[in-house]
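Q: Fold this one first, please.
A: Sequence and structure below.
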Amino acid sequence: MSTPAADPAHLTATIIIGVRNPGAAVSGMTARLLEAVELPGVDAVVIDDGSTDGSSPVLVAALEDHPRITLVRHDESAGIAARRNEALERAGGELIWFVDHDDDWSAAGLTTLMRHADGVDIVFARADFAWGPGPRDRRLVDGVAAWPASRMIPKRTGVRLLIDGSVHGFLWSKLFRRSALGSAPFPALVSQSDIVGVARAVAAARTIRVIPDVVYVYRRQPGSITRSRTPDVRALESAHDAVLDRLGSFATAAERDTFTARFLCLASVNTAVRWGVDRGVMRATVRAASARARSLELRAVAGESLPLAAAMTLLRVAPPLLPLALRTALAGLDAFRAVRSRVS
């Protein structure tokens, strides 16, 4: 645990939650939220994006009359990106924390983030990914693992961390100054709007602090939009282009090519493999990834990451072999996790 940088008592923060069909998770979410808004200077905006599962009355009963919580309900769904943009317009805090209803987060995590937020535009923390109930059924999914203590970094370093994947585009492991996010930072994409918003904030930021604390645990749920059987590669392409549009001028050519290789080429094929798309979708996905890989400077990518350069070489010379290699690697990873879970 890092040493607190400052007393957060003079800071204000808004927790933003977009909700659609939270089901049984609604009670846990409301309990966490009611605890968090007891912190000094903290309020919340919760937007129900047209839930149809009967959870709305529970939200109303728990939150509607709370003086520090703004609850907005819609009859139709507009998507999480639109609802986050809407919530930002209603946010009163100078700091913004985005959370999801079905993950593990707490008032303690927000307190940690706020203690490090004085005088900076973004706090990069860490988050874990949990795939089971045991203490060993989790791994670091975001955050700089190599830095054991809090530190200030310049914008250029923040850009590199996001471009090279040391810091991912998840919103919930970060605390943003409202002014850095700007107006409507999230584009209307089926997925991947998060990283575009993060890129916009990094581009606008003057100062960033990186801390080693885990403030959030992400639990992948069966209904997640990233688990679609027909992954939207166009969303990856749009997000990729938007990130480079914001951050490309701060990055080197090698870093830009590495980002394309990792975030677009490899990720699109990996997503298709992981969620078992049909052969036609797989062929189209690999074909598009191969075309982008041929535009990259492989020597530059190799200078940043040899394994990534090897994957791009495979996409160039024998594209069908990459899904096979990824499928084998993922099967090994799943087997390792299963053994680890049984041991724990």
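Q: Good. Now the second chain.
A: Here it is, same layout.
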Amino acid sequence: MKNNLLAIFCFVCCAIVTQLCTQRVWAQTASAGMTLEQANAVKSIKIANLDKDTYFKSGGFILDRYEERPAYVFTYSDGITRKIYLYKIFSAADTKDLGLLAIYQNGKTNEVKPFVIPGANGDRKAWDAYIDDLKYVGEKEPGLMSTLGFVLSREMANLMAGGGGKSEDGDKKKEEYNFCFAADAPVTMPNGTEKAIRDIKAGDVVVGYNAQTKSLAPTRVTKVEIHTGEFKLAGVWLASMNELTAGTSSALVAPVLLEATANHPVLTAAGRKALGDVKAGDVLYRYDATAKGVVAYNVVRTEAAVRSTKQVYNLVTESGAYLIGETVVLDK
């Protein structure tokens, strides 16, 4: 009887705190209403590494770790470590704020339980599904309700204390989630020509890159993403490593410019990096016709804002990488 009362108390606390939290957080922004279908789709998303996968796209959604926080960790007297991970949910098509994903993990079994919490404007059926999950899943997993209740209560207390999620310049801007290139960015085609990214269509075949074999190969475009707004493009200037070490008699070629939104990932010698995080001295890779493959290029200069544009494009490819201006860039 005592355990049943405790479970009921935790359930009621979770429901009340969640409702207050969503009203306070998402009512501050023009959030879209999450549907039951969307809630079920988010709940079915599998996250490969909860500790490392803090931001990614899947199934038409963007999942972004809430306030970039690590997991909440609890160790009870039974010796089992329990964790709660929080992600913000956005629609990938228009970056509308949809709600929150809370993931419970049992450290003994490694089993995870997802809870999709709709935003304040969420459909009633989506809210009903969340309440059902609290009741029926929570009853079967000891420790789940108390950990989830604590986390949501803690976040609510932080919001009421004046914290909670706004940066110095307000909420995250939509363009922070748009990883893209200007409309005239040249995509390298298998026949050696280039085509403006605005003219690429889903189903087209472009030059891709296999990071494991370090080789170029044709790859199919599965999706073209287009965003309209006001976007600043960062730039890096690249020079061949051979030119940097050539003798004074060699004719130097002007550095090549690669520009994209600052968060678009590129392939560097150190691995995947956002373009805005690339520094002078870093190494990127470009296609070389003579070598019939990619060669190392050194970053000789960077610029945070080369120009602005009102429309940006991104490709999703089967290989996960393609060439812009013959430079290897990665899918977001």
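Q: Anything worth noting on the second one?
A: Residues 1-13, 19-30, 164-175, 245-250 have pLDDT under 50 and may be disordered.
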